Amino acid sequence: MSADAHAETARKLIGVLSEGRIPNHLRQRAEALVDRMTKPVRVTIFGFPGSGKSTLANLLLGSSVLNPKDRLPTVQITGGETVKSSCTLPDGSTVDFPHFNTAEIAAKSPIFVNAEMPLPALGKISVMEVVANGGPAELSRALAWAAERTDISIWCTQTFGPAEQSVWKAATEDMKDHGFMVLTKADALARDGTLNSVVANLQQQGAEEFNRILPVATLDAIAARKADGTIDRDQLTRSGGRALIAEILREVDLGLQAAVDQAEILLQRFPPKASPAPAAKVEAAPKPAPAAPATVTPVASEPEVASEPKPAVEPVAETAPTEAPRVSARVRSRPAPEMPPRPAVMPVNILAAARNVQQAAETEPETADAEEETEVAEATPPIAALSPATREAFEHAIERLTQHGQKFAGDAAKGGALEADLLMRETANSVQWLSDYLSENGESRDPALSQLRAAAFDAADLLQLMQIENDAGSVGEFVSVAIQLRREIESALAA
């Protein structure tokens, strides 16, 4: 779905909210969906002092913003037309600056800093570095405070020792589902010959705690952007920086699509009375100027998040002492690829119709220039055959769904039509079972499995939202989502 289509969905939902058509118990959720569709995703960087948070923030921002030598408190950086900053002092008062000079700000000894600047990356994300110098207890409090202000979490570490594990254990499940562990300073470990063993150890310690674990040679990634503005993409890839950027962009796109899907369900339930007025125009995201002014304190030059394509990120062997291997172990159930398009509502028998094969999805026309198209094409892996483990998992899933469907068909044949609420509940249970089953079975590196995990995960979320109202009119939606998932599995088996 294009950015214009996302913005149109947001406009419609704003119109429905203004008309008072959303029930009170759903209004807060609807407003949150509007925010998700119209505002940049909030990325928060955590970690103990010295873990490389500021340098990683510079990498994501694509500009020289934070100087690790200046002892700043927690800093939030968002998009804006000009550079400016505001400091909150210990007595609660604020000091405003028409610039962002880290040394000058640090001299005020603030407890919080908010900065705005016209960086391209800030059209998609905002970045907050959480600073807690008082040990694990202070960092735990900061983690809890940041939970409601975070969409994607990044934990910077070199060891993820017991103190770090204790702090992160208290993170919400949502933060963990959208959380990345980043092994910073991976170049030094590579030179020491200890990188692979450290990565293996981190995967054991954080296996159930993070969406992905990614080693990044942060300074090498920053150095991939040359003085003339060009990017050494091979160096960026070897450093692990490109993998991290790609994963964050995938998570951004996945979250946006999930919000749009849920908004469309609300709009189907509570359609607008009339077309939204032109004055209610909502931009998909701020469009800052192409570069930051000279008032930003220089540190080093880094690549821009928003400019990177979405390469496939697979583990590769370490090829040189100064290179960080592109390890990106999927360790939690939430997958990265986008959810397939939701089908139209089809009032059909869930068991018979589910045997049809999924038709090829329509694609949006591309407007990128030739160079961008070439880069994306080069980063897209060829379609690979299913591994035996994934094929077995898919076949078992089809068998289980078929048995469940046959039971419903038999009940309907004996006692007439099934009650709508029962059908909705059992369909939601089947989709949740499928999501849980695919998250634990199959070969994780299979692209088809990653896609189906994403589809099942988000479908389960959608059905939970639809169950809130318990409206019998939603049966068609429930059935169509289940059919879409089964067709996706059958298509993968037939490929």
Describe this structure in words.
- This is G domain-containing protein.
- 42% of the residues are buried.
- The protein has 495 residues and is of the alpha/beta class.
- It has two domains: 3-252 and 288-330, Rossmann fold (3-Layer(aba) Sandwich); 353-494.
- The model is unreliable at 276-383 (pLDDT under 50).
- It contains 17 helices and ten strands.
- Strands 4-3-5-2-6-1-7-8-9-10 form a ten-stranded mixed beta sheet, with helices on both faces.
- Helix 14 (388-415) runs antiparallel to helix 17.
How far apart are the first and last residues' alpha carbons, in Å?
24 Å
Order of helices and strands: HHEHEEEHEEHEHHEHHEHHHEHHHHH
Give start-end ranges of low-pLDDT stretches.
Answer: 276-383
- The CATH C-level class name of the largest domain: Alpha Beta
Overall pLDDT score: 75
The domain tally reads 2
- Beta-strand content estimate: 5-15%
The secondary structure category is: alpha/beta
